[in-house]
Structure formats: C-alpha cells, structure tokens
TrEMBL record:
Pfam families per the UniProt record, alphabetical: DUF951 (PF06107)
InterPro entries according to UniProt: DUF951 (IPR009296)
Top-level taxonomy: Bacteria, Bacillati, Bacillota, Bacilli, Lactobacillales
Taxonomy, superkingdom: Bacteria
Name under which the protein is recorded: DUF951 domain-containing protein
C-alpha cells in the first residue's frame, strides 16, 4: 500500500513528460507533486487509486521514534 512521501507512477504521464509523483498529503484527498516540474495536483482518494499504476519507491521512515 502507498504512504506519505512515496514515489508513485501514474497511468498517464504529466504534460511535462515525467511520470513519477511524490505523495505530499494524504486524507480524504491525496495531494501529489510532479517530480519533473514540481506541479502539485490534488485529487480524491478514489481517483488517485484508479489512476495510480505502481509504487516506484517507498519513503524511508525512522524506526527509532
């Protein structure tokens, strides 16, 4: 499953040509940031789950906290 700060690939590339996005906010809506141009997009969780293809990189979390 995806989590905050994971890098995901969407089914369609962004207009800038990049296809990797960082999850920067999670809740009822998901906010993602394009890794190519920095454009931020907010969409419903349902739309995000339909449009996400796969997780490219999981975020590294501290286990010492």
């Amino acid at each position: 499953m995806y989590d905050l700060h994971d890098i995901v690939e969407m089914k369609k590339p962004h207009a800038c040509g990049a296809n990797s996005w960082e999850i920067i906010r999670m809740g009822a809506d998901i906010k993602v940031k394009c890794q190519g141009c920095g454009h931020i997009v907010m969409m419903s969780r349902r739309d995000f789950e339909k449009r996400m293809k796969k997780i490219l990189q999981h975020a590294e979390h501290d286990q010492d906290a």
